[in-house]
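Hi support team,

I've been running sequence recovery on a batch of backbones for a student project. Most finish fine, but this one hangs at about 90% for roughly twenty minutes before it completes. I'm not sure whether the input is malformed or the queue is just slow. I've pasted the structure tokens below so you can try to reproduce it. Let me know if you need the job ID as well.

Thanks,
M.K.
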């Protein structure tokens, strides 16, 4: 056997080109209308749509990502007098916090 006598086991096969004339007619086997029926259609990945929706401006922060402010129970004891009512609104006012969540920790550091 010579090198020029060797043949491939599976011949090269190109994908069939659809919509180039011939005997398919009308929609050429592409169904009807829409993006998938058009030539050179490329469907955009869903990830790209998510990226496009995110704001590009600098310093933008998601409010849902903010972490809660940790306040120790020892600090609460120094801020509030004994027998006083402790509410989250009052803690915010006395600590000078604008908003967000507050988490009370019982562990001492």
């Amino acid at each position: 056997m010579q090198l020029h006598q060797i043949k491939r086991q599976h011949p090269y096969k190109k994908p069939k080109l659809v919509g180039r004339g011939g005997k398919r007619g009308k929609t050429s086997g592409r169904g009807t209308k829409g993006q998938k029926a058009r030539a050179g259609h490329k469907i955009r990945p869903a990830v790209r749509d998510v990226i496009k929706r995110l704001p590009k401006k600098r310093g933008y922060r998601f409010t849902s990502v903010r972490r809660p402010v940790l306040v120790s129970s020892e600090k609460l004891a120094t801020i509030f007098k004994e027998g006083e009512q402790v509410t989250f609104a009052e803690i915010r006012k006395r600590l000078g916090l604008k908003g967000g969540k507050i988490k009370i920790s019982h562990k001492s550091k």
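--
Follow-up from support: It reproduced on our side and the slowdown came from queue contention, not your input. The chain has a mean pLDDT of 82. No action needed from you.
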